[in-house]
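Aim 2 progress update. The chain analyzed this quarter is reproduced below.
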Amino acid sequence: MKGHDALKFNTGKIAEGREADLLIWNLDAVNTFPVYDPLTSIIYSSDASNIRYTMVQGEFLKYDGILKADIRSIISKAGEIQKEILERGKGKSKVSY
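Predicted structure tokens:
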């Protein structure tokens, strides 16, 4: 239980000055209902659509189920990176057993 201390993420406690990320799940959905154990429903039944709110370092990245990021620019940037990777070639890989 000392993982937070070992990895130096400034996490593991709710206190001023600590990193604070938060997810708020909607478990009252078709894929998670009925809920007998919330943690089990999150792990085994839920997906990204169940996450209604995401807060990272005090800023909402997803609010009421809607991403606040500029999705078009993210997709555009990913496409540019994909082209750069393909231009470099396939590279070499070696598999041995």
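The chain has a mean pLDDT of 86. The chain has one domain: 3-88. These observations will guide the mutagenesis experiments scheduled for the next reporting period.
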